Amino acid sequence: MRTFVSAAATVLAVLLAAVAVPAIWLDRNIVQEQGFVELAAPLGRNSEFQQGLAAAAIGTIDTSAVPGFLSDLVRPVLERAAESLTGLPGYPAAWEETLRKSHLLSFAGTGASAETAAASSLTLDVAPLVALGAEEISRTTRLPLDPPEETLISVGQPEHKEWTERLSTYAPAGYLLAGGSAVALLLALVAARRRWTVLVGAGAGALLLAALWAFGAQLGSAAVLTADSGNEVANMFRNEFVAASSAHFQTWTLAAAITGGALLLAGIVAGLIAGRRARATR
User: Fold this and answer.
1) Which of 11, 31, 89, 100 has its CA 20 to 30 A from that of 110?
2) How far is the C-alpha of 183 from the C-alpha of 204, rounded, in Å?
């Protein structure tokens, strides 16, 4: 009976961990604003993405208040502003604010209209970048420009909004599942006649999970990359963000593999020691 309870508890611990770890990663790095900003912030240093985003942001600036006879003079100023936007001192702060506003729209929905909230799972609000560009253009030309409060670039497809809602609801449950996994593993150790078998089983399970998570991450990334938003800048953001997310999650799978290998090795060593002691007592 003890052997059965120990084996069942070990399997339960592995199954709970299989769901808990990806859920915790999603909650910390996608659902939580700070994690999302830290994960996506390096994208703003990608030169190709920077230029595309800057051009898109500057292109949305409303110049209708500029007198018609000055429009030909303003156009080259806009082009130069798009090229120099990423070099302005306020660009890093504006990019971070862009990520925070975008996360709020995509996950909280606060301040977004019903149409905006249903547009996609991830809506980039580049208003901070537009405001930075408009400020620089106004400083250069002395012409008044009134940047909008929202400048939205839709990323993904409308059905992706359901994904963000499900993530916000279920991802935090990963912590509870992780606690259950730890309790199940402890129960397995307490009930086991040979505790080293639990270590071997848990280690082998962790190695298997690491491989499954890596494979699942590849499938998920490929599925996301197949969706075309119809916007070049949005596609660039999606591609870079998916790559950054995949690389970050790989560190978690590597940690799981290392932990699993350590548990497996510890179990094998403990089993050899136990076997030698048993033979010595005969």
Assistant:
1) 89
2) 18
